[in-house]
Amino acid sequence: MKIDNIKPPKRLGIFFFYDEDGIVDDYVIFFLENIKKYISDLLVVCNGKLTPKGKEKLLESSTNIIVRENYGFDVWAYKEGMNFIGSEKMAQFDEIILFNSTIFGPIHSFDDMFKEMDKRDLDFWGITKYHKMPFDPFGTIKYGYTPEHIQSHFIAVRKNMVNSYEFKKYWKDMKMVNSYEEAIGFHEAIFTKEFSDKGYTWDVYVDTDDLKEHVYHPILMMPLELVKDRKCPIFKRRSFFHNMGDFLNNTTNQQSLEFYEYIKNKTSYNVNLIWDNVLRTNNMADIKNALNLNYVLPTSINKTIELPPSKKIALILHIYFEDLIEYCLNYAKSMPVESDIFITTDTEEKKKSIKKAFEEIKCANFKIILIKNRGRDISALLVGCKDFLFDYEYVCFAHDKKTKQLEPFIKGESFSYRCFENVLGSREFVENIINTFEENPKLGLLSPPPPNHADFYITIGLEWTNNFEITKKLADKLNLNVDMNNVKEPVAPLGTMFWFRPNALKALIQYDWEYEDFPKEPNNNDGTILHAIERIYPFVAQHEGYYSGWLLSDKSARIEITNLYYMLRQINLAYVSKCGPTNHYTLVSNLQYNSTKIYSPFRSRSKQFLKKYLPNPILNVLIRLKKYIK
To answer: What stretches of 431-546 adopt beta strand conformation (E)?
Structure first.
């Protein structure tokens, strides 16, 4: 059946919307405003709740809004939406479109799409398809494999099929959907084949048949190809937070970054529509991994930038150890001469030594601030410097660093080197950091990646150690509304040296901190409010609408690539020697399944052994893990 182009087609849109907090972000309104031009009537079906402001925004697009209990996923939302409209009224439309809020767009006008699809003699159609897979990864598809199918984020059904016995029976007999896997297996993966087998014709707007042997999920794994070269008007929200393991099982994880840069630099689509939604609704680690939010910047060359006088830059440097004053001075010299430098310390004697060492430092303003010796570098920032932080556009925070619990001391010294080199490596590097903030207005915090050498190796994978609960309590105290997950790494400065926009840390800075909020010395090596604050920085930034990323100098990146390759190679060799060749996805799955084997060396080890050879944060985690290992 073709759509009659003599008169405008009469279309009904049933739009499924879900948001855990009932908030309607602007990307939804932008999408609906653009598609309304092609729809006669629009019904919005919302699962769960809807805020008054959210409802007000949706009413701009449709006066027909259903808010129902959050069950049945999108499948039952469509079913109830059609029941609400009624078969008699639905029969009056040339086409019914079932679509949902899991997509962004349009990035190209819908005009070409509707004109093209109106010409085709079809019973139902969509925008994109998922190609056939010879297996069922969800365990819910009745065929035992995944058929080729139209993706359920947008399916249009024409009058003759809507009015058919088969269509009505399909929805009448729909089983309850209790999980994402069932939503795929009970509807999305089978809808196309069910009706194709009954003689109904179908197609999709974006032709990817030439990619059948190339990729199963084109819109997720090849979004740039579809949007740029095949004029796909939509793209998936999931592109910006999808499971890293699945990306790596198919690609080298380049697709979302390349696609985002194309949207940002080559299209008129407002990327803030993406950020405002994704930052509010997803875990920062997932976003960072999907978009590769790692900034590797040169240390010897820089873009010439001229900041407006209103954009002030500051370095806040806490110095406690007198023997590290010269060491800190050498890095402080990397700051632009237009910046202000503040040094915090705890005694008059140290202040005199610092003043003498820094007397020839070139900067706009220089000041030494005396603070209490309670709370270390973190209280220096949040109490000692609180009153003037918002005077600055960008701030670098650093401190002298000794990790005295590890022997020999070179291990801790190398950690300090890693931190300083990746925030204050050279004057050119610092200027490149400032320029990166200028070019990325949603960037709120940049910090070096966690350490992974010597005893710090186990930090990777145990970034929370035993600090998740205390960090979560702090998040509640600050009224943060973000996704914190104890199995996902915090994108945090685990060395407490970083660059930031003060506005990105507003909730933390504005909290009424006092020195007495912090533990007295001597301090524990883990599990204190200091360690909670160290991990909460990126969550505060996310709450304020900014993202966080890793920062590496080009010199440090050379070292990091060597180290990570060596470590991964050793892991692979150890695994392959016992289990044979594999890929990352299978290796990790097998290791997780046999997790007790990973920790078996620690079963017979005493606390005395662990204390001798492991730093306390790692010891605490392993001791806790032992009780779960039978």
So the answer is: 443-447, 498-500
The string of pLDDT tens digits covering residues 1-22 is 787 666 789 999 999 999 999 9
What is the rounded average pLDDT of the residues 67-96?
Answer: 97
629 confidence band (pLDDT: 50, 70, 90)? very low
pLDDT of residue 623: 46
Q: Decide if 287 contacts 278 (C-beta within 8 A).
A: yes
Q: Which two tokens stand for residue 625?
A: 């893990």
628 Cβ contact list (under 8 Å, min separation 6): none
Q: What angle, 0 to 180 degrees and rounded to 10, lies between the N-to-C axes of helices 189-197 and 165-172?
A: 150
pLDDT at 96: 98
CA–CA separation, 76 vs 454, rounded Å?
A: 53
Q: How far is CA 184 from CA 96, 165, 461, 572, in A?
A: 21, 23, 31, 34
Sheet holding 154-158, edge to edge: 64-68, 41-47, 11-18, 95-100, 154-158, 124-126, 202-204
Q: Give yes or no for residue 613 having a pLDDT over 50.
A: no
Same domain as 540, residue 441: yes
Same domain? For 546 and 608 the reply is no
DSSP label of 102: T
Written as one letter, the residue type at 621 is: V
Range of the domain at 606: 561-626
3-state secondary structure of 446: strand
pLDDT beyond 50 at 277: yes
* CA distances for 577 relative to 354, 583, 585, angstroms: 55, 14, 17
Instruction: Tell me, yes or no, whether 317 and 407 share the same domain.
Output: yes
Within this chain, do residues 331 and 202 fall inside the same structural domain, yes or no?
no
Same domain for 97 and 137: yes
Task: Indicate the DSSP class of residue 226.
Answer: I
pTM above 0.70, yes or no: yes
Are residues 502 and 580 located together in one domain of the fold?
no
- The per-residue pLDDT of the chain, averaged, comes to 92
User: Does 548 share its domain with 570?
Assistant: no
| Residue that finishes a domain, picked among 230, 260, 279 | 230
> Using 50, 70 and 90 to split pLDDT, how confident is the model at 584?
confident
Residue 286 lies in a domain: no
- pLDDT for 572: 87
Tell me the mean pLDDT in the region 198-225: 98
Q: Which of 11-15, 29-33, 323-327, 519-523 comes out lowest in average pLDDT?
A: 519-523
405 plus 426 within the same structural domain: yes
Number of domains in the chain: 3
Residue 545: beta bridge partners? none
**Dist. CA 135–CA 147, nearest whole Å:** 9
Q: 379-386, long-range: CB within 8 Å, 24+ apart, which pairs?
A: 379/513, 379/515, 379/517, 379/518, 380/316, 380/318, 380/344, 381/316, 381/318, 382/508, 382/509, 382/511, 382/513, 382/533, 383/513, 383/514, 383/515, 384/344, 385/316, 385/342, 385/344, 386/509, 386/513
pLDDT at residue 579, as a whole number? 83
Answer yes or no: is pLDDT of 305 > 70.
no
Task: Give me the pLDDT at residue 3, please.
Answer: 79
**Domain boundary residue among 488, 521, 552?**
552
Cis upstream peptide for 9 (omega within 30°)? no
Q: How many helices (H) and strands (E) does the chain have?
A: 29, 19
Cis upstream peptide for 408 (omega within 30°):
yes
**Does residue 256 sit within a domain?**
no
Give me the CATH number covering residue 399. 3.90.550
Does residue 410 belong to any structural domain of this protein? yes
- Calculate the CA 398 to chain-centre distance: 25
Asked, for residue 280, whether it belongs to a domain, the answer is no
Go through 262-271 and write b for each residue having 16 or more CB atoms within 10 A of its CB, e for each that does not.
bbeeeeebeb
